[in-house]
Amino acid sequence: MKKKILAVMLAAALAGALAGCSGELSNDYVTVTQYKGLEVPQPAPAEEVTDDMVEQVVQSNLAAYAQSEPVTDRAAEMGDTVNIDYTGYIDGEAFDGGSAEGADLELGSNSFIGATDDYEGFEEQIVGHETGDEFDIKVQFPDPYTRNPDMSGTVADFHIVLNSISLQTTPELTDEWVQENSEDSDTVEEYREAIRSQLEESMQASVDAELTDSVQTALMENVEVNEYPEDRVEELTKQMTDYYTQLAGLYGVELGEFVETYLQTTEEDFNTQIDTQVRQSVALEEALKLIASKQHLEPSEEEYQEAIAEYAEEAGFDDVEEYIGQVGEDELKAAVLRDKVTDYLVDECIQVEQSDESE
């Protein structure tokens, strides 16, 4: 009888041990049913960086150093930048959004109304005019005109004052230019190689980000929410709302108008989307805390400081304390922990190669 009782006790103990190894973690807010060995789609390898890609970046960088030279001895040509005042009329009446003063326009950029079968484009009709000229042109809005469907196909007159003409001169890529404008390179060859390395790092970062997103998604599929810490939900909701309120201010509008005009949704749907995103973020946060505690992944103070300094550098801050003051120390520490635990989950995940059918 004693042997039988002992066997039952051992079986029960073994069952308990196996249950303890299942990987399930729980607190008041969430239960994580699995976090090791999460199966995720294997991302495609990083795209190969070509010479054309490098050249595009080189030309873009050179264009950033282009010098504007005034043109006073000839009429405007394609490729010039003109500064104009203009007023648009439909049936003799000025219309909303059709006027501006001191607007810079690169001729040939196709930024303004283009040509139709019956009318030349806005930019083409400026060509041939000189500084100080005041003239009228006639154009036709495209059909359809997605920015304002009511004006699709409408013919409009524009009164234009040509204030100035200038020409952008792009510097040539030389060793001298590199030495003046690059901190890490001295020659054209070194500069191109540095750009190639940056592009390769960027391509790989995109692959890594895709894998990280997949791992977090897979984790959340194994997270059961018991309840939400409402204080944290309110805190993150306020942060997101404040962000969009500030963004609306940059456009000179109130939040409600920004949501409807620029995000093209209703305030109700906008608030619902924010609430959903915040609650998902909070649930993920709680799950990562549980995993960090179980696996002893909580960053040390030194790790926190090193990571925050890296974040500050990536964000373009020279002063780490200023960066902490803007973002908030608690938020930054939460980000450091999230990144460390996510790196652990990525190391532990199982990447499943995708077949053509599964794709």
Automatic annotation (TrEMBL):
SUPFAM superfamilies: FKBP-like (SSF54534), Triger factor/SurA peptide-binding domain-like (SSF109998). The keyword Signal applies. Residues 79-171 form the PPIase FKBP-type domain. Residues 1-19 form the signal peptide. It catalyses: [protein]-peptidylproline (omega=180) = [protein]-peptidylproline (omega=0). It is found in: Cytoplasm. It is an enzyme of class 5 (isomerase). InterPro entries: PPIase_dom_sf (IPR046357), PPIase_FKBP_dom (IPR001179), Trig_fac (IPR005215), Trigger_fac_C (IPR008880), Trigger_fac_C_sf (IPR037041), Trigger_fact/SurA_dom_sf (IPR027304). Its EC number is 5.2.1.8. It holds the Pfam family Trigger_C. GO terms for biological process: cell division; protein folding; protein transport. GO terms for cellular component: cytoplasm. One of its GO terms (molecular function) is peptidyl-prolyl cis-trans isomerase activity. Gene3D superfamilies: 3.10.50.40, Trigger factor, C-terminal domain. It comes from the Bacteria. This is peptidylprolyl isomerase. The gene is tig.
